[in-house]
């Protein structure tokens, strides 16, 4: 698997934060930590690799404020650095459904770039890391972990809904169910602070 080291990932994020500061940085950190925590209980995943892939999934935002083209910007950035597998995650994390129009946002890119994305998706099969980062992107806010339903509603309120919204939500819930079947417990049991961040109170107090 061709991915950056932890130190390289940290350097990429630090540089990107200087270029385009925003809540996406903390969101990315929590995506990485969620992926790490789930991977620690998964027999076929490496937890450090999972963290790095999650941490860098939105690295395309280094290029500035953008909508869905951040996926392409991240792909090209990491490809140029020689990290093809991490670059792949920059694209696949927004596609729990393999359809170019199923994303929660707008494609602010050219027709040629859309054609590239469409062809790219048609040539790959999602693996467990693709699916893990898709899931973790859907349970991480800049303030920490939350129920997937809260995150999906947050995205819907900001970006609106379309004919793919319900199938997309079902896809996320299906991925969650699959991972819980493998790790033998609710994903929320391994995500510290999820209750507090979702509901705004500490159940132990």
Fold and architecture overview:
It is a single chain. This protein has 205 residues and is an all-alpha fold. It has a single domain, classed as Hypothetical protein af1432, CATH 1.10.3210. It has ten helices and two strands, in the order αααααααββααα. The chain has a two-stranded antiparallel ribbon. Strand 1 and strand 2 (144-145) form a beta hairpin. The protein is globular, with a radius of gyration of 16 Å.
Q: What is the average of the pLDDT values?
A: 95
- Structural domain tally: 1
Structural class: mainly alpha
CATH topology, by name, is Hypothetical protein af1432
Output the strand order for the largest sheet.
Answer: 1-2
Beta content comes to under 5%
Low-confidence stretches: none
SSE string: HHHHHHHEEHHH
CATH architecture: Orthogonal Bundle
Sheet bearing the most strands, described? 2 strands, antiparallel
Q: Radius of gyration, Cα only, in angstroms?
A: 16 Å
Number of helices: 10
CATH class: Mainly Alpha
Helix residue percentage: 55-70%
Tell the overall outline: globular
Question: Can you count the beta strands?
Answer: 2
């Amino acid at each position: 698997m061709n991915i950056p080291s932890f130190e390289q990932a940290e350097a990429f994020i630090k540089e990107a934060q200087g270029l385009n500061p925003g809540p996406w940085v903390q969101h990315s950190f929590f995506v990485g930590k969620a992926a790490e925590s789930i991977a620690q209980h998964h027999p076929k995943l490496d937890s450090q690799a999972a963290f790095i892939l999650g941490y860098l999934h939105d690295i395309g935002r280094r290029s500035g404020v953008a909508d869905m083209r951040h996926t392409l910007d991240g792909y090209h950035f990491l490809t140029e650095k020689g990290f093809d597998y991490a670059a792949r995650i920059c694209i696949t994390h927004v596609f729990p459904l393999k359809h170019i129009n199923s994303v929660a946002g707008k494609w602010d890119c050219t027709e040629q770039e859309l054609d590239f994305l469409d062809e790219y998706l048609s040539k790959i099969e999602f693996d467990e890391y693709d699916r893990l980062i898709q899931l973790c992107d859907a349970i991480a806010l800049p303030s920490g972990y939350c129920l997937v339903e809260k995150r999906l509603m947050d995205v819907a309120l900001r970006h609106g809904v379309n004919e793919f919204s319900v199938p997309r939500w079902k896809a996320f819930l299906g991925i969650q169910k699959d991972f819980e079947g493998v790790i033998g417990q609710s994903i929320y049991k391994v995500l510290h602070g999820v209750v507090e961040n979702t509901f705004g109170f500490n159940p132990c107090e």
